[in-house]
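Backbone shape codes:
===
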Amino acid sequence: MNISVKTLILTAVAVMTSMTVTAQTSQKLTANKTNEYGLIYTLPKTTLTVALSARKTVKTPGEFYLYAKKYLGTDPIVTPSTTWELVGAQVVPGAVADMERQYMAQFKSGTSPFMMLTAEDFPLALNDEGYEMPSMPSVTLKGEDAKPTILEQPVARQAMTEEMLQSHSSAKRAELAATKIYELRQQRNDIIAGQAENMPSDGQAMQLALDNLAAQEAALTAMFLGTTSTSTEVKTYNFTPEASSDAAKVVIARLSVVDGLVDASNLSGDPVYLNLTVTERGKLPVNEKGVVKTFPKGGVAYCIPGAMNAVVTFGGKTIVKESIEVAQYGVVFGLEPSLFTNKKETSYLHYNPLTGAILELGTK
């Protein structure tokens, strides 16, 4: 039965005397004389964590970009730029206490059924102390820092000749850099052909030499063509679906060309939408005549959840779509408390801690 907050307060002291912690993530609540053989618990409300992954791309012109076409015949990066792109999303269900769904299961005097609760007081199991809470879904998207560009690595200094370092003319330095690029290419060709004056002693030494020449060439080339650096950031946003709404479209975040992912209230960015559509509403069970069953007196409450499609869109494109069970789209019903006190065939119950639904009902 659904109980009032006042009743909960009056019985709280008695309940605490029969509760023992069995693990960091669960606690045991036993029905006994102290709590008048009643177990009090709260069913969960489904929440959503939306994780967004955005890639930042920074393009920087090289020192000699004005001479790239002349010496390398290639169009370079000519203007510094920073762009952001939404590259991934996840919608991960979670749960918080639904204070409107607090219940007390009332058992027969002289019995001692027990309930395992999560740390948030969600029901986990009834009459099964060894049941382990199933793995909860979590955000798996990972951020990634930008790696140093070739011009930020020691090889860039190594590629510079003394004459390049001493010259004060940009045009002259560009000419010297282009000359060095062609020298490096020739050295590589000579090593591969076995015609170098100082050939590497073995295959490993040859590969090291070729790699070093390629890195120096890449550094000098970047001085003409510029560099591109990428990094990825991941941010999370929380949302709780409303029980009464069949559909919702909310701006969960925004993507700014300057700051990347920002809050929904920051109008500097384009909106990232979370679209919710109810696909199923939980229904109370009926008997063989199609009449809705009555909630058992003192019954063990559980949720018959509904479901929804959760879709993240940006710029008119779908980034991710998930089908998720939702507690608040469902209804609450109860099991006969006598199922859990029958000494000849005692039942056990496993809950879904995200929705309060039945995962498994059996007998010991």
